[in-house]
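[09:14] KT: can someone run the structure on this one? pasting the chain below
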Amino acid sequence: MNVTSKQKWPRGHFNMLPAHELAGGRLNCGYAVLGAEIASLQNEGIHLLAIDGYHGTLWDSFRSHLTKELNHGGINHEWIDISGYLHSSGRLSEMLEPFLGGDDPIFGRIWPLGVEPMFNPEKLAELHRQLLIKKGNDSASFVIVYGTGASLIGCQQACWYSDVSKQHIQQFFREGRISNWTTGASLSFGDFYKRSYFIEWQAQNKLKQALLPVLDLFIDMNNPDEPVSVQGGVFRQSLDELTRSPFRPRPWFAPGPWGGQFMKGHMGLDPNEPNYAWSFELIAPENGVMLSSGNLQLEFSFDYLLYNNSEGTMGREAAATFGTEWPIRFDYLDTIDGGNLSVQVHPSNEYIRREFGEAFTQDETYYISKARPGSRVYLGLQEGIDPAVFRKSLENSAITGQEVDIDKFVHSIPSKEHDLFYIPNGTIHCSGSGNLVLEISATPYIYTFKLYDYLRRDLDGNLRPINVDRGFDNLKFERKGNWVDENLIAKPRALNTNSGAVELVLMDVPYMFYVIHRVDFEQECGWDTGGLAYMVNLVEGDQVEVISENGRSTTLSYLESMVIPASTGYVRFVNKGSTACKLVKVFVRPRK
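[09:31] RB: done, structure tokens below
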């Protein structure tokens, strides 16, 4: 692992915490506000509240803080923990085991249902009966049913929802503050993440979507000591407004065994971390979007925009195809002053559906945002290799720890800024050291079959799992040097020239569902979304002002990523710097 930077990379304008103005209303902070909300409900004759929420909410802390406020306000109340109505641990294990992948340390199968099967229906029905009695008794204490699935009681008079970002969920687990929702067993981080990804998050997302139209209060619980809340109607109004406005999701960053040093400097990240390997610009299932009001900020998960208005956010055709799953992913891979990525391959569409229950696979591209002299991208196999010899070398390395000379087997190409490499599923690949890669890909993001990882350990000191069997099940051996050079390296062609802006087609190939263009301009450029959603990234230039048809204006700085929803209409990018700009734009190919 690279611990010290070989070069101090200067700080750029990159904003780590982009936020967007709340559409009407205001944000509030603290438990006193929540206590006052309950007092208001009680004054309206309401005394049965469900507080549902995503796993990762620190419910014990939440209850303790709010109890103090209710006691201070003299509100007689009763708490009911919905987790007591889950199936027994044995029944849950029996039900969920087929989705956990057995001994596979990484992969399972997507849970297709919601949270309802996790609960004991008889116990839940009895609770419902008891609550109806309490609900009909005007002199009863104020009842709060809380926890993931609380809204399943079905007779609540008001409903709140507590959300926690995926980044904080993972952080809370590492700090020992939470375990999995469906088991109290002590698990490794890998097992925790696998259970979360394949089962718990899938189930809870369906509940989150169902509750959005009826939420009375939305609570951001990323900081469990200072919850930030907003009225449900104001929240939905803000989602509507963002569907018509360019916006930046909140990126988040992670170190890794091959990570580099450029992002640490340019993006102003924690200098105490050994490196940064990833910037997750938008991985739709894991990123959030931030709203601001005064000096307060509230984060909600990106998928709320799809749950609120999938067609308005990503367009009619894309919504018909992808439902509420945003299809395009942007992230950075930083190997500048770092090491090579693992040598890897992604599964075919058929394989990912059959084995993991995903709807589509992980076709990728590498856009080279920065490159040091001598940097390379590994792509495809060398001409004339024997697949059996290659496989034997990889398997032997995994057993004995003997290094593999990857250059004997894997084709590599020099990389320079603004190169684009196509990586359709089944193609062996990795970024070499010295690159800042903007990885543009389909959204599925964990299905990387590592064939060789240079015998490196992860940040917990464990050897990272190798998937030679799965990898060779998916490798397309005909993708070798000469074919790769001819077919997988972008050859830009001009699409149009308009008032000083030149639009280039970088990738439009039939075997990948998204298209990549780049607009090069001196002063400004713009286009009408025409019912298509776009993701953009400023790959050259200092900063642009982004102006949308609804009158909202924001900025996009060098290397920042932005979503342009399908309902935006005409959007303009005005150069605010002294040098020319290059703007990458990516969209789902419309049907002919």
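[09:33] KT: thanks! The longest strand covers residues 364-371.
[09:34] RB: yep, looked fine to me
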